Every structure is written in structure tokens, then in C-alpha cells.
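W.,

You were right to be curious about this one. When I first looked at the sequence I had no strong expectations either way, so I just let the prediction run and decided to look at it fresh. Below is the sequence, 211 residues in total, followed by the output.
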Amino acid sequence: MAQYMLNSVLIAGGSTLIAMICGIPAAYALARMEFKGQTAFLGFVIVSQMFAPVVLLIGIYRVMQTLTLTDSIWGLVFINAAFNQAFTIWLLRGTFMGISAEMEQAATIDGCNRIQSMTKILLPVAAPGIVTTLIFIFINAWNEYTVALCLISTDTLKPLTVGINTFNGYNMIEWQYLFAASIFAIIPVVILFMCIEKNLVSGLASGGVKG
């Protein structure tokens, strides 16, 4: 169970980190810049949310096989980050659009370049939306089951969602161990919500700005 828990933490944490590193600049560009093909790109972001991992499972497996990332924690990290990328961009774009651009313009007058105004002005103000996005990405990656089941065959590399199946045998189900393992799987998510619940509502509201 300790190994399964560690694998889940690595997968969820790594995919969350990658999704945020890629999603924040993309969301900022869509909220503050105008470029050719912007509308089409936004449409692509929305459409990509329509495809569940199970629909693309065969293609995912072939790609991971080509990259030699099957039966690998890194493979699950990249896949979870990719499938959460559209959600990250869309929610953070709404968050950034809800923040007045005059604040960044004032920072530019004071001598900040675009990157400095984003990191020193925009991101601190957008903290509730960023935290909310981070939570949802982490939970989605933590709860992912189908892709992990198909890609991971080594017991020591399985995440908690797949490892719980160890207690579900051919002849019997060890209910006491299954329920105990389920509690272990729920506890980190509950603790996470308890730590950041004050930012959750404001983050969802800021990410829902229509633009």
C-alpha cells in the first residue's frame, strides 16, 4: 500500500506540475494577447475536452509503446498532464480575464517587462483561481484508473487506484482490506480540500468569467 500511495503521489504531483507550467503561459497568452488563429485554438481546446481517455486508449498505448513509456510512471505523468491541459487553459484564461489589465500596465510603466508583470502582479492576484485549478488537476490525476490499468503491468509501479484491485481475487473479495485501502485513497484528497477550501469558491467564480 505504501508503494501504491507513493506512485499515486508521484503521478498526480508530476502531472499537476507539468499541466500548470504549460497551462499558465498559454492561458495568459489567450487572455492578454491577440494573434491569428486565436478563436480556432480556443475551439480546439474546448473540443479536446470531449474526448475521454478510454476513447483514445488504443492510440495512447501505441504512442507510449513507440516512446518506450509503457509500464512507466513517467508515461502516466505525461498522459494525465495532457488530458488536463485543456481544462487548465480554459479555467485560468477566465481567471486572468477577470483581473484588470490596468494593473499590469501600471507595472510596465514602473519598469517591469511582460514576464515580471505576470509573475509579480498577475499571478499573486490570480492565486485563488490557480489553486482551484491545481486541486482539480491533482484530483483528476489521482483518480485516473483506465489508462493506468492498461499501461502498467508491474506491481511496484501501479498507482493506488489500480493497486486496490489486489484485494479483489478470482474466488473471493477481501472486503476488509478493500475498504481500508479505499480510505487510504480518500484521505489525501480530503486533507487537500480542507487546506484550500477558502480559495475554492472564489477560484471557481473567477475562472467562470465569460470572455
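Here's what jumped out at me. Residues 175-207 form the longest helix (33 residues). And, maybe more interesting for your project: The two ends are 45 Å apart (CA to CA).

Coffee later to discuss?

I.
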